[in-house]
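Methods: example folding runs. The two proteins below were folded one after another, and each record is reproduced exactly as written to the output file, sequence line first and C-alpha cell line second.
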Amino acid sequence: MANSAAALPKGHFLIEPYLYDVRSPHVDSFGSLTYMEYGVTNRLMLGVIPTFTYNRATNGTSSAGVGDASILAQYSLTSFREGSAIPAMALMVQETLPTGRYDQLRNPLVDAQGSGAYTTTVQLNTQTYFWMPNGRILRMRFNLGGSFSRQTQVDNLSIYGTPEGFHGDAKPGRAFNVDAAWEYSITQRWVLALDLAYHYAEGARVTGVADSTRVAYRSPSSAYVGFAPALEYNWRNNLGVLVGVRVFTGGHNSATTVTPAIALNYVH
C-alpha cells in the first residue's frame, strides 16, 4: 500500500498490474489497477494508473465498468546513502480523474465505480534500509499524505446517498492517510512484506433539490486501520510477483473488508 520513494532512472519504466477482490458483507468488488511509471529525469517520474471494476452483490446483481483513473508526478528530494540518517524522500502529487460511474445509478451497491470528483493527493514518501545481523536487508517506507476534492454535480441515485429525482452537488471532505511498510529479504528471490495504514476522511457535503424539496446534509466522517501481509518472489532483478491480502478493520463508519491480491512487477 505504501508508495516507493525511490526514483526511476531517466528513460526507464515500471509496469505493475494488480488483480484483487474487495470482499465486504454484501458485495464482492473484483478489480484491476496498473501502475505505469516513467523516469523523465533521474529525479522526476510521471505515471498513470487506470482501473477497472466488476461488482457482484450477494443477491446476484452485478455490474462492470471503468473505475477512476489517476495521473501522478513524483520528484525525488533526497537519495538513500548508506551510513546516512537521512532516508530517500520524494514529493508525490496524484490527481484522480472521475472516469468511473458515480450517479444516475440503478443500484448504488453494484453500479458505482468511482467517486465522481477530481481529487488531488499530496504526499511525502520516505524509504530507508537496515542491514540485519544476518546480512539480510530490511527496507522500511513511511508515507504521509492528504487529499482534497472539487465539487461535482450529482443526479438521482448516487454514491453520496442521494435519492431518485435528486439534482444538486456534492463535495467530498478532506482526507488524511499514513502508511508504514517493511520488506525483509529472506533470500535474493524471496521477500516478506507487511504494510500498516491509517486513513481518515471528512464527510461529504451534499446540497440540492429532490421532488421540489431542498436537500442539504453532510455525511459522517470515516476512519479505518488496515494491514497487508504479502510474499514476493523475484525471477530476475527486474521481474517479480507479489501475493498478499489487505484487511481494513471496519473502524469509524467504515466496513470491514478483506482483499486478496496478486501483482506482477516489471522494471526496464
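Second run, written to the same file directly after the first:
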Amino acid sequence: MPMTRPITLLFLLFLCTRVPAQQAYGAAKSAETLQGLNDLATIDQMMYYIPGIGSPSREELLRQSIKNYMMPIRQVPQTGMEWAYALADCLEYYVNLNSNFKDNLSPDYIVMNLANAGQRPNLVDGFGLLINSGTVSAAIVPYNSSTIPNSVYSVARFGITNFGYLFRPETRGRNRVFETRKALSRGNPVLVELATDASFTRLQGGTYEPTGPTNETHFLTVIGYDGEKETFELRSSLGRNWGNGGYVSISYDDFGDLARTGYVLIPKE
C-alpha cells in the first residue's frame, strides 16, 4: 500500500528543517574513531550535504537522482564480489565529485587485500580496509585481476573516514524507506543488501518485483527515488545487459520488505 500523507509530510518537514544544518562536502569534521556508526543522530551529523546535488527544495525532496554522477556500469566477475563492486561505486562517486577527471577505483584490490590478510572477504571488512588504508585506481589493479602488483605501494590511495548503518534487518520497513530517501536527498548514495528471489540475476526490464522465495542476497547502490511513483532506482554490478542497462526500479513497499541493511559512506575531506 502507498505510504500515508502524514508520513510524507513528516519527511518533508524533517528535511526542510535539518538539511541546511548539514556540513557541505569537503567541510572539516571532528575525528571519529569508532568504525561503523549506529546512532542515527551521529550519522546525521557526519553525513555530507553535497551542494548542487542534495537540496532542500520541494522538487528535489519529491525526486532525486545521482545517476549522472556515477561511473559506467560494470560487470562483476562473480556474484560473491558484488559487495566490493558496489563499495567501489559509492567511493568513486565522492572521489570524482570535485575532480576534473573520472577515476575508476579497484574493487578487486579490496577483495585480494583482505584475502591475503587471511580474512574471508566481506563488506564490513571492506569498509574497515577503506578506513585504514584505502583502495587504488583500477588502472593499477584492473577488474578481474588475480594478483596485486608491487606498484600499489607507490600510488595514491582512496579511502573513507567512516561509514554508517542507516538501517538493519530489524528496522521497520517504512523507516528503511525514510532513511534512504533522507541520505539521497542530501546527495549520498546508499549501499544496500537486498533479499531477492532466484530470478534476480537474469532480470530483464526496468522493474523488479519478487515472484518466489527471497533466499538470495545481492548488493546494490540506491541512486535515486521518485516520491510520486514511490519507487527507488538501484544500480547493479551485473552488467549492462541486466535489468534496464544495469539499473532497476523497486517500489517503496518492496524495498521496505527486501532491503536488509543499508549503509552510507563518510568520505574523507
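Comment on the second run: The CA atoms of residues 137 and 256 lie 34 Å apart.
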